[in-house]
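Look at one such:
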Amino acid sequence: MSSFNQSTAHSIVFFLTGIPGLETSQAWISIPFCCLYAIAISGNSMILFVIITESSLHEPMYYFLSMLSFTDLGLCFSTVVTVLGIFWFNVREISFDACIGQMFFIHGFTFMESSVLLVMAFDRFIAICNPLRYAMILTNSRIIAVGFAIVIRGTTALVPLLLLLKRLSFCRSHVLHHSYCFHPDVMKLSCSDTKINSAFGLATVISTAGLDSVLILLSYVLIIHSVLCIASKEERKKAFGTCVSHLSAVAIFYIPMISLSLVHRFAKHAPPFVHTLVANIYLLIPPVMNPIIYSVKTKQIRKAVLKVFFIKPP
């Protein structure tokens, strides 16, 4: 197969993968995937709607939750077309430029979600450790500035990464191992030297999700120390209770991400469908679970959602 250089990169066509070995069952497999996308999109849209329309939810904690729902919606819309397109219509082809665009949104929203989780940890830290200055520190103008900073951070880190990808030549198989374009997956198909790409990709992940995870952990070490200093057992329980939803969101974001990394690195000889399923779980579980967690664990959100459906909360 002839090689492709940078000037002809736009002519490359990649082929996405459904569930290897289960091609004859893809119509049935699409049903749970379709349901998960429907739950994720409707759930996060509902969270955004109640926060925007319910004046009692116009507080920093819920503004940050709306940012989380926005990034989850972004992740869903970044992959739903290619994933369901494969299952329903067996449309596997994707151009190089479209692939680059999808990677930009997938990785961009992933980095943004990591940043939002960090900001939410900071919010809990201020609320528990310095409650008297909470409203003074987290003003509306600062929350807006934080929102812009999250978007800028999530997108600017990707620009050089994707530009480096466009300089590569692709002369091997153009079959990707996922239902969407994933940077390490695309990079592996190149016949050029990818050391710079790999190093920059690792540095980007460490400086975003890696750094965020360390700072989130540090925030909770300080929160736990502060809570344990509270004399009242009931007050300690109440303080920890305000963190349960956020800790759950952190877990369902980082555990699938770590699992996908481990599968790519250590499970190279695992059945091909394992890689595809883990990759889809990595992007679908957080958007599906976050609205459920916050609706169940956060009383104000639960009441606002029930109010939309004219159901009187218990």
About this structure: Confidence is low (pLDDT under 50) at residues 1-8. The chain has twelve helices and two strands. The radius of gyration is 21 Å. Strands lie at 13-15, 93-95.
